[in-house]
Amino acid sequence: xxxxxxxxxxxxxxxxxxxxxxxxxxxxxxxxxxxxxxxxxxxxxxxxxxxxxxxxxxxxxxxxxxxxxxxxxxxxxxxxxxxxxxxxxxxxxxxxxxxxxxxxxxxxxxxxxxxxxxxxxxxxxxxxxxxxxxxxxxxxxxxxxxxxxxxxxxxxxxxxxxxxxxxxxxxxxxxxxxxxxxxxxxxxxxxxxxxxxxxxxxxxxxxxxxxxxxxxxxxxxxxxxxxxxxxxxxxxxxxxxxxxxxxxxxxxxxxxxxxxxxxxxxxxxxxxxxxxxxxxxxx
Length: 283
Known about the structure:
The chain is an alpha+beta fold. Helix content is 27%, strand content 27%.
C-alpha cells in the first residue's frame, strides 16, 4: 500500500476503438446483444489519485453536467471500497482528453483505471475477474478496460475473449457532436438482426458498425467527417459515435493523412495497443 501523501499519482485511461460493432438481437429486458472487437490506443485521459487515510472519496476536478455522485470514477472507488472493506479513501482528479459522447469509452476507461490503480494503491489485490465483476456494475464498456487486452466481445459487451491484432496506427477524428447512445439504440431505423460471426472468422478489416447509418442520418457532422476519412482509408465509426477512425500500417502514412485535414476538422494520430498500460495492476 502507498502511504497517504501530498502528491497525486497519475495513471493513464486509454481510449478504445470498436473495430466493428454488430447488433445481433435484443434481450427480453431491452438490452441489445452485440458483437464487437475492442482495441486500445495510446490516446488517453489522465486519472490522478492521492490516497487518503480518513476513508473519504473526494473528486477534486469539476466536470460539466456530471455531479460527483454520478461520476463513474467516484462510483468505481466506492464500489471497490465496499467490496474490499478497505479503510482508505482517495482524492480523484481528472485531465480529460477523450471527448465525452465520442464513442472512445472515456468515462468507462476512467472508471476502470480507478479500479485498477486503487487495487494496487489500497493493497486490495483483487484478481482481474473480481474487478471485472465490479466493473460490469458500473457500465457495459467498463469490463473490457479491466480485461486489459484486445478483445472479441459478445452479450452486452461483458463476454470477452482475447484476440491478436496486427500492428496499426489510427487517424481518429472527433466531430463536434455529443451522440446520445440511448437514442441511437432506441431508433426504429437500427437493424438488430446482423448474422453472428465466430472468432475464427474475424479479421481486422471485417464487419461494420451497425449504428453508423443511424448516427450519420441524425448528426451531419459525423457523416461529413466519415466521408472525408473514407477517401483515405477504410474508415468507420467507433461505438455509438461521434468519433470516426481509419487504420494505417505505418505512423508515417497516418501522419500524412492527418496533415491534410480540411478546415474545422481535428485529428489525433494514435498507435494501437495490445494491452492496457495498467495490465500488471491485476492478476
